[in-house]
Amino acid sequence: MKVGYLGPEASFTHNATRTAFPNEELVSYHSIPACIKGVEFGEVDLGVVPIENTIEGSVNTTVDYLFHQTTIPVGAEIVLPIYQQFMVSKKNQARWLETTKIMSHPQALAQSQEFIRTYFPLAELEATPSTAYAANFVASHPNQKIAAIAPKMSAETYDLEIVGKDIQDVEINQTRFWVLGAEKIELPIQSEHQKLTIALTMPNNMPGALHKALSAFSWRDIDLSKIESRPLKTTLGEYFFLIDINVQKPQLLLDNALEEIRLMGGTVKIFGNYAIHPINGV
User: Fold this and answer.
1) How far is CA 43 from CA 14, 20, 28, 129, 164, in A?
2) Which of 220, 239, 182, 221 is nearest to 64 (CA)?
3) Residue 7, Cβ neighbours under 10 Å: how many?
4) Are the C-beta atoms of 225 and 244 separated by less than 8 Å?
5) What does the domain layout of the chain look like in residue ranges?
6) Percent of the chain that is helix, strand, coil (3-state, to 5)
7) 181 φ/ψ sector (left φ>0, alpha ψ -120 to 50, else beta)
8) Which CATH number fits domain 2-82+173-180: 3.30.365.10, 3.10.180.10, 3.40.190.10, 3.30.110.10?
9) Same fold flag, 2-82+173-180 and 85-164
10) Are 79 and 176 in contact (CB under 8 A)?
11) What is the per-residue pLDDT for 205?
């Protein structure tokens, strides 16, 4: 089986994918849409993409593509603890405080702002396609006073020296990844609870539309763990709502709640009903 992931190698997504699929062929993609299209076009059987981070929130590229452009189901979720490392070439290890440019993925830069402000308030920050890309660039330019923020695996892969350990602003920093391509996907990682994710759109000009929709869950005591609005990309001021539901009630009760919303004139798109698989100690 082939499993696609947002690359390159040694990125956080690669880390999660490698742990969840240790014996499968892994295929790197340069972007989230490219990875999802790889599943759509049959280049790979499954795809792994980030969906949310503790600090930075939802990955809008993933949410919007799955809502607007595909019907590929979510079959599992992986939760990976995120530890950001500050790394330089071995040649610059002794003078790492002289770094003039810091490179990383925008989310990694945002997750490490306190460290950057403390040690490098004047350094140039350069966003890169991935954390692993930044590490690779630093390794390829050892004579430049540059550094990367990336996972530990990147330092090992590209032979860099970690000079700042676990520099993320929040100690408990996690990223959720969705496994796409099948309605139910078995992983060799112990699962916790089940989750149902839907996208909800209500009719225009309906007073209290969101309140009425949420009441379908409320009076049935259905627990919602997340609700977020995203632009419909039609007219300014029109949105769909991304909702995560903790599956603790009978399926019939959930189905009835969704049917009640449809009877109000709402539209419901089901992303997936899937198990949560936390990864520990990676």
Assistant:
1) 18, 19, 11, 22, 39
2) 239
3) 22
4) yes
5) 2-82+173-180, 85-164, 194-278
6) 30, 35, 35
7) left
8) 3.40.190.10
9) yes
10) yes
11) 65
pLDDT of residue 282 exceeding 70: no
Please say whether the beta carbons of 135 and 155 come within 8 A: yes
The total number of residues written for the chain in this structure: 282
pTM of the predicted protein model: 0.84
Rounded to 5°, the CA angle 59-83-152 comes to 110
Query: What is the per-residue pLDDT for 82?
Result: 87
Q: Which CATH class is domain 85-164?
A: alpha beta
CATH class of the domain whose range is 194-278: alpha beta
Structure tokens that stand for 2 in this block: 């082939």
pLDDT (tens digit, 9 = 90+) per residue, 172-225?
889 999 999 999 999 999 888 899 999 999 887 678 888 999 999 999 999 999
> Rounded to whole angstroms, what are the CA distances from 186 to 11, 40, 69, 83, 195?
23, 20, 25, 26, 15
At 94-138, the pLDDT tens digits run 999 999 999 998 889 998 999 999 999 999 999 998 888 999 999
Distance CA 190, CA 186 (A): 10
* Per-residue pLDDT at 112: 94
